[in-house]
Design the sequence.
DNA sequence: AGTACGCCCTGGCCGC
DNA sequence: TGCGGCCAGGGCGTAC
């Protein structure tokens, strides 16, 4: 599933191909894709003839700035953005729900089997505020103190890390991996973490997200970069999808529980 | 206000 | 080999 590192890898992949280029043809074939705002026809008409001035990321959202408006893309669970050079190469299949063609050749394909992803237009100036996204964990403003302030409430720390209005971009994989690296059990109440644990978690979040980007993302099932290649970070996972297997640090058996309806993985010996 | 939970969707897997 | 049923999970709407 595309989380902050995966979206950032895709953003970086796409910049050299589409930044500064003009959209000359648009096809949006899935009504669900634009459900948050507008119809496929309206979004397609608005995109036609626009030049992409910048590609930005905020949490798991990708913004294609077009001047006054931005095309906001969220990949949901199984969304993929794929760059196709020229006319040939990558083919649209029954899960390809949008195709943007660019002046001078090249196409951007949006593909999403489970259709949890979204694509819609927002005014550029207020786009990020209107989405109510929490603090950006790789930004300098994300300090241990900022994490401590985000940790108010009685919920489990795992559930809190998944709350996009508190901290942006962390999903199920990086939440479990960060908590392992911090030595904290996912079931712990967020407001029970001691200052030392907050510091460790803050450090672990930043390290694991940066490592995810460096290894070009986690490909458990569907994730691919903009060139169609899987990421390599899953091989570095300590706990995610490793239940029943020995902990790489202590050898104890990794457990899997349900927390807030999400599969949650941890080492019973390393995490307290 | 903060928290909990059902729902959307489809490929893959399990058991018979 | 075939098929019904269940599961994963991000984020939103609704309920408490």
Sequence:
């Amino acid at each position: 599933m595309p989380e902050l590192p995966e979206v950032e890898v895709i953003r970086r992949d796409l910049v050299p191909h589409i930044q500064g280029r003009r959209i000359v043809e648009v096809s949006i074939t899935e009504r669900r894709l634009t459900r948050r705002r507008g119809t496929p026809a309206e979004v397609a008409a608005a995109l036609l003839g626009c030049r992409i001035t910048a590609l930005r990321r905020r949490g798991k959202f990708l913004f294609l700035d077009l001047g006054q408006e931005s095309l906001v893309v969220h990949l949901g669970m199984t969304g993929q953005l794929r760059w196709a050079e020229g006319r040939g190469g990558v083919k649209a299949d029954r899960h390809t729900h949008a195709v943007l063609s660019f002046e001078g050749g090249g196409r951007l394909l949006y593909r999403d089997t489970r259709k949890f992803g979204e694509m819609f237009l927002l005014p550029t100036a207020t786009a990020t505020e209107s989405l109510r996204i929490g603090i950006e964990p790789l930004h300098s403003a994300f300090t241990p103190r900022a994490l401590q302030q985000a940790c108010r409430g009685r919920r489990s720390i795992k559930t809190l890390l998944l709350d996009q209005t508190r901290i942006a971009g962390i999903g199920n994989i990086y939440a479990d991996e960060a908590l392992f690296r911090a030595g904290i059990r996912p079931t712990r109440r967020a407001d029970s973490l001691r200052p030392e644990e907050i510091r460790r978690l803050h450090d672990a979040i930043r390290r694991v997200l940066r490592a995810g980007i460096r290894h070009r993302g986690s490909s458990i099932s569907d994730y691919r970069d903009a060139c169609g290649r899987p990421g390599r970070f899953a091989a570095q996972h300590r706990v995610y999808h490793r239940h029943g297997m020995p902990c790489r640090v202590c050898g104890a058996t990794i457990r899997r529980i349900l927390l807030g309806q999400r599969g949650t993985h941890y080492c019973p010996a390393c995490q307290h």
